[in-house]
Amino acid sequence: MMAAVRSKDTKPEMTVRRLVHGAGYRYRLHRKELPGRPDLVFVSKRKIILVNGCFWHQHGPCVASHLPRANREYWIPKLEANKKRDMKNLRALRRAGWKCLVIWECQIKGGNGLGRILKFLEN
Length: 123
Ligand SMILES: [Zn+2]
Hints:
The chain is α+β, with helices and mostly antiparallel strands. The protein contains 5 helices and 4 strands, in the order ααβββαβαα. Helix 3 links the parallel strand 3 and strand 4. The longest helix is centred in the last third of the chain and has 24 residues. The mean pLDDT is 90.
């Protein structure tokens, strides 16, 4: 199961990649030297886009983040640790001067995340 957290070519991420590539932006993927190996890195703009799965990264208000009823004693600490790690990485990136946009799986599926991405890259 842990492999799914690290999965690099998730569908929402592929959607985002196609969008920004189609808009003419070039990026690097999962730079090892950056905290959390962020998804899309726009080096010259010093911007980063993080594409988060709603369950694995526990998107608070979102139904997709709801925990399974079984094995809660297993899931709760694991997902809490994911969340903490996300926050820590985000803080480290911002401190290092990166502008970061976190986009959630549900926002990409719903379509309203895509406009935000292009706006973020524009300015
Ligand atoms: Zn969500």
